Amino acid sequence: MFDVLWTPWRMQYVEKAGKEEGKCVFCELPNMDDEEALILYRGKYNYVVLNAFPYNTGHLMIVPYRHVSDVTEMDDAEILEMVKLFKRSVEVLRREYRPEGINAGWNLGRAAGAGIPGHLHLHVVPRWCGDANFMTIISRTKVLPEALNETWRRLRKGFEELGS
User: What are the structural domains of the chain?
Assistant: First the structure.
């Protein structure tokens, strides 16, 4: 039997993603204030940002500054930094939240589940046994134990403490 992680609350995000012609949220975020944009860390080629519609507390994404839709479009420096930021993200999440597991991955194309298929991003999702419950399925409500701004403060501090 398979476990299923339903995410019906993401529908409002998926439905409006990419609707504004010519605008890419991942291209716009770096122009904003870090706290407002939920940016945790800025590298040379990529940045780390909290997902505004998280599957779980601490759900973050690593996003290249350059607008690319596929990993094959990235050069070696971009992909190397992305993998290093993934490692750092795992370290910070483990230190701050002690998850029992972590899901990570790219959704390449809309058919693969990409909400924003035009701009590649790597999801990093901390997981705990039993983190999906009846509230999500029955009442279409996601229960997160911490507000996004508090998660941002905790993880931002974690990235700062690990240094660059």
Answer: 8-162 (3.30.428.10)
Helix ranges (H only) for 61-142 are: 76-97, 134-138
Provide Rg for the chain, Cα atoms: 16
Whole-prediction pTM = 0.80
Place of tokens 């046994």: 129
Judge whether residue 3 has pLDDT over 80. Answer: no
Q: Is 59 a catalytic residue?
A: no
Closest CA to 155 of 47, 46, 80, 78: 47
Tell me, letter by letter, the H, E, C secondary structure of 2-53. CCCCCCHHHHHHHHHCCCCCCCCHHHHHHHCCHHHHCEEEECCCEEEEECCC
Mean pLDDT across 129-144: 61
Contact between residue 123 and residue 36 where contact means Cβ atoms under 8 Å apart: no
Q: Quickly state the pLDDT bin for 20 (edges 50, 70, 90).
A: low
What pLDDT was estimated at residue 12? 57
Per the document, the length of the chain is 164
How many Å apart are CA 100 and CA 162, to the nearest integer? Answer: 21
Averaged over 115-127, what is the pLDDT? 92
